[in-house]
Amino acid sequence: MTKPSSTFPASSDGATTTESDQRSPPHASRTIRFLESVGISDPEVENYSSNDFYSVLLCNHLKTHTVQRGHVTCVTTVKPPITNFFGGLHGSVVAAIAERVAIATARTVVGEDKDIFLGELAISYLSSATINAELIIDGSVIRSGRSITVIAIEFKMSKTGKLVYSCRATFYNSPIPKL
């Protein structure tokens, strides 16, 4: 059985504090109104309750342009669901897109027989990409060896070519042991 609330001693004078397990409806409605006021409202919120809904959210915005050995180019348009409070592309979205493009780029040179894992992701936020801006994301291999692969990712404005975000990802390669 679950308890509807739990009680914690608040101070030495014997007073107690009650913490409710249920969310207050006024807080929920205020939160929804806030999200709608900044342009983030989605009638299908239930679709985002799965374990990997971020993939669906990003894949709706990220389109592959070209794939070559050692080079991947993608295009994205900044829309309200992936922006921050100030109307720019959210920093975590930059990181998530950079990771996806880096993995795709690394896989163009590292065979499927090797496992890769991300050891480092460094991002320089040089400028902001505002709503409806189209970005070109270029991923290219800087170095690929037996045990390490380094990828550079650049986010540039489509119209001006201005560099807005610069990233570097380091992957460690590990061969699958043969028994």
Automatic annotation (TrEMBL):
<feature type="domain" description="Thioesterase">
    <location>
        <begin position="86"/>
        <end position="159"/>
    </location>
</feature>
<comment type="similarity">
    <text>Belongs to the thioesterase PaaI family.</text>
</comment>
<dbReference type="GO" id="GO:0047617">
    <property type="term" value="F:fatty acyl-CoA hydrolase activity"/>
</dbReference>
<feature type="region of interest" description="Disordered">
    <location>
        <begin position="1"/>
        <end position="28"/>
    </location>
</feature>
<feature type="compositionally biased region" description="Polar residues">
    <location>
        <begin position="1"/>
        <end position="19"/>
    </location>
</feature>
<dbReference type="InterPro" id="IPR039298">
    <property type="entry name" value="ACOT13"/>
</dbReference>
<dbReference type="InterPro" id="IPR006683">
    <property type="entry name" value="Thioestr_dom"/>
</dbReference>
<protein>
    <submittedName>
        <fullName>Signal recognition particle receptor protein isoform 1</fullName>
    </submittedName>
</protein>
<keyword id="KW-0675">Receptor</keyword>
<dbReference type="Pfam" id="PF03061">
    <property type="entry name" value="4HBT"/>
</dbReference>
<dbReference type="InterPro" id="IPR029069">
    <property type="entry name" value="HotDog_dom_sf"/>
</dbReference>
